[in-house]
Design a protein that fits this description.
Helix 1 packs parallel to helix 3 and helix 8 packs antiparallel against helix 9. Helix content is 74%, strand content 0%.
């Protein structure tokens, strides 16, 4: 005679969901975990079910939906052991849909914000996740800097120096430590020289020497020296 199961309906659904998850049957896992979340939100397995539902969506490349579910873990189960990892995964979800630098960077900004929230709210989290979040933030900040830089270069080609200066300055104001910052600072000096704004050109060149000369390429250093030689003595 078969022994009756001591599991409740939520536990049974959760077990079935985990079995589907382990088989990478993401669609079935989502269905089962969603049922647990909706029908038994206060059950002991609800937090993990919500988290694994989000992971199933993530693994199915449904990143926007995954972000919503990961956020539900934080909102509905803030004291669960899945809350910190869920916050990290919100950032990861937006990271996956962050586009090329030349496109709209709204998801990039969202990802940075979520990683920063993770680092702020969970300072004693798993070190590997904290390291990953910090690297992601640096990478994404550089992407936004690259977007401004590409806009500046476009205005260079369009012979619109005023607009070029605006975008090069945005790089320096917001992403002074990005890889494109040295070139941005040098271009500000060169553009101001071409516009006969010699004091502004000198100030920009002084800033280049003070902040970026060490990290500049040989070509950039040569350009800076040539520009310096063209400027009259102050």
């Amino acid at each position: 005679m078969t022994k009756p199961s001591t599991q409740g309906p939520a536990d049974q659904l959760f077990a079935q969901g985990k079995a589907a998850y382990e088989k990478q049957d993401w669609t079935e896992a989502i269905r089962l975990f969603e049922q647990v979340r909706i029908e038994a939100p206060a059950s002991p397995v609800a937090a993990e079910a919500t988290y694994l539902e989000a992971m199933s969506r993530y693994n199915q490349d449904m990143f926007a939906g995954a972000a919503v579910d990961f956020r539900a873990v934080r909102r509905n189960y803030p004291s669960s052991p899945f809350a910190s990892r869920a916050q990290y995964m919100i950032g990861e979800s937006y990271y996956q849909i962050s586009p090329r630098p030349e496109l709209d960077q709204s998801y990039t900004v969202l990802a940075i914000g979520e990683y920063q929230t993770f680092l702020r709210d969970y300072p004693n989290t798993i070190p590997s996740l904290a390291d990953s979040a910090q690297k992601r933030i640096a990478e994404l900040r550089n992407k936004i800097a690259q977007k401004y830089f590409l806009s500046a270069k476009l205005y260079d080609k369009l012979d619109d120096p005023k607009s070029s200066l605006v975008y090069y300055q945005r790089v320096l104001d917001n992403f002074y430590d990005s890889p494109v910052a040295p070139e941005s600072q040098l271009r500000i000096a060169e553009i101001n020289f071409d516009r006969h704004k010699l004091d502004d050109a000198r100030k920009a060149l002084d800033a280049f020497d003070a902040k970026y000369l060490h990290d500049a390429t040989n070509s950039q250093r040569d350009r800076a020296l040539k520009l310096r030689s063209k400027l009259p003595s102050p």
